[in-house]
Each structure stands twice: as C-alpha cells, then as structure tokens.
Description:
The chain has 14 helices and no strands. The protein is mostly helical. It starts with a helix and ends in a 7-residue tail after the last helix.
Amino acid sequence: MKLLNQRSLCIIYMTFASSCHYIGYEFARAGTFALFTSPRHGFANGWAVSLATACISPCSMLLLYMYTKLYDAYGPRRTLKITCVAFAAILFIGGIVLSLCIEQKAEAVTTLALSQTTWSTYLTRVSLFSLFTIQNSMVYLLSTQHWSFLGSVVTSPTQTSWIAGVGSIFSTMGGMIAGRQWFGADLTKLLLAAGGCLLASAWCGDESYRIAENEGLLTIRQDASSKTKKSDEKMHSLSLIQRALALFRRVPVLGRLCLEVFCYQSQSSLLNYLYVVAVKDTLKNDMDRAKHTASTYALINFASGLLQFLCLPMLSWLHIDYRFMWVGVPSIMTAAAIYMAMTQDWSLWLVSASFVTMKTLEYSLRHSMIESVYVLLDYESRFVGKEIIAMFANRFGKSLVALVLTLVSVTFNDSSLPYIQRSLLLLCVTWLMASYRLVQELSRNRLGGANAKKD
C-alpha cells in the first residue's frame, strides 16, 4: 500500500513539474511575442519572425547535443534539474536586460541621447531574438524529460490521458493569466514570472525523482536497453540519408508518414507566419498583442483538453478508424484555405480561427494518429523511424519553409504577402494528397498482411 501511495505521490509531483513548465512557457511566449513584434522595441518586419523560426531547429539540435552530454555525465535527475534552472536563469537574465534596455531607451529619448537609444535598441533586439529562439527550443526538451519519467512510473494508459488533460488545463490557466494582464503593462514581468515557474518545476521534478529512487520505482529494462544499443550501432554504421532510404524501402508506410509530416509542418509554418503578420499589422499596441496571443493559446489548450477528455474516448468507443481522420483533418484546413483564397479575406479573426483549428487538431488528434501508425511497426522501425521523421520531416520542414519565407520577405518586402497567402492553399492541397497516399499504404498493410512487420 505504501508503494502505491509513493508511486501516486511521485506521479503528482512530476505532473505539477510539467504543469509549472507549461504555465511558464505561456507567460514567456506571450511576453516575448508581443515585444518581438513591437515596432518600438522589436522587429517591425515580418521576416524577422521567419528567420527566428528557421533558427529554432539548429538551436534544438545544439540543445539536444548538450542534453546528451549532461545525461551521460549526471543522469536523468540532475539533467532535468540543470536544464530547468538554466532555462529559468535565461528568462530571468533576459527579463532584467530587456527591462533595463527599455528603461534606458525611454530616458535617452527624453534627453535626446541618440547614441544610447541606438545601443539600447540593438541590445533589445538581440535579447528578444535569442529569447524567441531558445524558448521555442527548450519547451520540447523539457517536455520530453517530463514524459520520459512519467512513462517509466505510470502503469495505466488512463493515467497518461488524465496527465495530458491536466497539462492542457494548466496551459489554459497560464494563457488566461497572461491575457488578463495580471502583471500590469510591463511585459518583462511575464518573463520573470516564467522564470519563477521554471524554478518551481525544477523543485517538483527533483522531488519526484527523489521519491522514485528511494522507493525503487525506476527500473531499467535490460532487454530494451540492449535492443537500443544494437539499434544505435546499426544506425551509426550507415549515413543518416542511407538509413532513411533503406528503411523507407523496407517499410513504405514510414516513407508516406514522413512525407505527410513534412507537408503538415510546411503548411503549419506558413499559417503561423500569416497569423504573426495579421497580429502585428492589426494590433499596434504591445499589450493588445500579448493579450490576443495569450487568449488564442488559452483557447487552443482548452479545446485540445476538451477533445482529449471527451471526443477521443468517444471515437474509440464508436470504433472509428484513424484512417478517416488522416484525410478529415487536412480536409478541414483545405476548406478554410479555399474560403480565404476565394474571398481574399485575411483578417485577423479569420486567420486566428484557422490557426486555432489547426493547433487544436494537432495537439489533440495528430499525436494519437501518428502513434497509431507506429503501433503497426516492429521495434526497430519504430525506434529508427521516429528519429528520422523527427529530424527530417519535423525540424527540416519547419526550418525550410521559414527560411524561404525570410528570403522572399526580405527580397520583395510587403509586395510578396499576397503570393504567400495564396500559397497556403497549395500547401494544404499537397498535405491532403500526402495524407491520402498514407491512408492507401495503411490499407494495404492491414489488408495485405502488414508489410511493415516483414524483415
């Protein structure tokens, strides 16, 4: 009975660690985005957002490399603590530097000290660009560590669903708090509050590890680790591209999935860019942008949690095949893109509605849909396939589109925006076709003897 109670307490601590991280991320995202797109303090041009988005993938790879070094040297417990505290320190330092620069710039303007104004502007923009890139890279690194631990101690899939729902609730709370401007008109206070949430997350995570280690809840599966080691040796014997091509030839469904994910990330990056441009051009006040961004993501998290708690269990109870959702999700976004292209209505509310729909479907359905594909595959295909798709389809897809948008925006300035808007429909149709090809391959696997299982 004691072991059960300690296990529950361990899960509760790590759930709070993950929730504090989500709240802090909502604070940091709202404050950084509003200041980043500010004509007074940040970047007035939309290409800066695309360039920062393109830098997220290289930054993520660098952080992943540093994480592996820390993990090998200190283990999972200290690595989680170090990364949380380091991210909190970055937010604290960034918030203080931005606050001082904005205050110094205001004083320089009143005293007509133009040299100090220029210096403060450069430092502010460098700080905002760095914060925007790092915060979007760190969120995945910290979430992966939280869920890796929970996956080791959680004994029921129902518990996993409830933990994900709790995370959505706390994310919604963070967005609502940031949107209601509880921290006043100084947006740098959101960064300081985010740093405090990260410190609370570090403490809760460390307590969870302490309980798990004392009670012997973290068990190492020798068979799984040996399989992983063999897979690593086999993977490193070939180049990454050769491994991907060989795997896609052996398991065609992974190739179709990689293409589908790449097409999704491409249209997702483009719609995210259009959302940023619409917010920047429509809302001129920094606080209004912070409020709108926080409220948008609060709505996304609330709708995602609602779908996870209600709709997904209902779909499972009705025995609805995931193959229908593979085509249904891109069809919804394609219909929205057709309407915007035909009416030439790129207003803030319509672009925001499309953005909320896309993110809600991503957070609530796409993860389950992708896992339903991996279930069909053998251990090696899942292990290697996830790595290849995460590297090529997810990161490369985002960075490629963001880099293209940056080059187009810098070259043609505002005259390129109508063409970028129309290209959303092209990417949505491409995504729909890739999803249909994936469904065809899934049908052949299920009806023809599961080709993915063959050696």
